[in-house]
Design goal:
By secondary structure, the protein is mainly alpha-helical. It folds into 2 domains: 2-77, no CATH class; 82-119, no CATH class. Helix content is 76%, strand content 0%.
């Protein structure tokens, strides 16, 4: 995509640039979106709902569906399952000084709830 845009900037006419922005750019963005979705699907910790939603976007295979999934859909279904959120909470608490009373193992659930809000 960058090569095409640079070539147009170097030697393209205004009409060619406008045509590329209307047709070429969305197709190039869709290619990037497919790769982003494939990377997401490679994560073994994603939820089944997220895996299904990503598959639906790939099956639809329109630039609009791919972009919508990445910008909206993946957050609607929840990007991470609860076990991954709990793991993130434990990791955060491990990095905190143990002398803090709120950094005890019993604080995993409140921190997990906070992280879960971030995923919605």
């Amino acid at each position: 995509m960058i090569g095409e845009a640079n070539a147009l900037l170097d030697s393209g006419t205004v009409e060619e640039m406008r045509a590329w922005l209307e047709t070429g750019y969305p197709l190039a963005q869709a290619e990037d979106d497919r790769i982003a979705i494939a990377r997401l699907l490679a994560d073994p910790d994603i939820s089944d709902a997220l895996r299904a939603a990503a598959g639906t976007a790939l099956d639809d295979n329109t630039p609009e569906a791919l972009r919508h999934f990445l910008e909206v859909g993946r957050y609607e279904v929840g990007q991470w399952p609860v076990r991954r959120i709990m793991s993130r909470a434990r990791g955060i608490l491990r990095r905190l000084p143990v002398r803090e009373p709120w950094a005890s193992p019993s604080a995993v659930m409140p921190v997990s709830r906070f992280l879960l809000q971030d995923c919605r």
